[in-house]
């Protein structure tokens, strides 16, 4: 198996090393794992691509490349330049430091990479590690992902639904904020929504007197509706959410016929 891995936390992020271990075990001795990741952190860039500027690609070691671009850029660079048409069998993105459940998924560069792979017809899985009181003080905050990542990916490959239609399925996996021994299992879960928990901005004045805005987030421990991703994560389960890049609100098409 040939696997392409990437992330949005950057080429030196500890979660990428966890993903490398998962991919190496999955590929086996006869497989190949290619790492093509952003040279610098790209958290929050979503599915952005560097459409108006070039990107520099640096080979750091065998099958390991840093790209001055977004996670989606990294997938494109991997498919069309670094692998030179030898398409991977699977794209894995992560393991993100922090959850990409609920509304976080909309902003996530980790998911942006998986989405681009799916648009290119490649099976893809995004993996993220939820942080909270149950794991933030562990020596290995990625313990749940490290301990259960390989099994989760293998179960998705064996039992997941993989489509080859125009907007193919990709998967969003979030590991709960607990130690590996505290993980209760895997749950298929819809994307949730944290009410009154959105992003905002906070102004700051620099030493030079210039005014800047920092984007602010909110606490992540509020559960979403029962059975949705963040809710099952906070209950100790790994969430697996099938996704598509199709943004159509299909449930609204029939009511909208009133305008015709």
Reported for the largest beta sheet, the result is: 9 strands, mixed
Approximate helicity band: 25-40%
Per DSSP E runs of 2 or more residues, the count of β-strands stands at 11
Q: Beta-strand percentage?
A: 15-25%
Shape: globular
Poorly predicted regions:
none
Average pLDDT, all residues = 96
Structural class, from helix and strand content? alpha/beta
> Total helix count?
7
Number of structurally distinct domains: 1
Overview of the structural elements:
The protein has helices spanning 14-27, 71-82, 104-107, 109-119, 143-159, 229-234, 253-256, and strands at 2-6, 32-38, 57-61, 64-67, 90-97, 124-129, 170-175, 185-188, 200-205, 211-216, 237-243. By secondary structure, the protein is an alpha/beta fold. The chain has a single domain, classed as Stationary-phase Survival Protein Sure Homolog, Chain: A, CATH 3.40.1210. It is globular. The termini are far apart.
Structural key phrases:
3'-nucleotidase activity, two-stranded antiparallel ribbon, cytoplasm, alpha/beta, SurE-like_Pase/nucleotidase, 26% helix, 5'-nucleotidase SurE, nine-stranded mixed β-sheet, Stationary-phase Survival Protein Sure Homolog, Chain: A, 260 residues
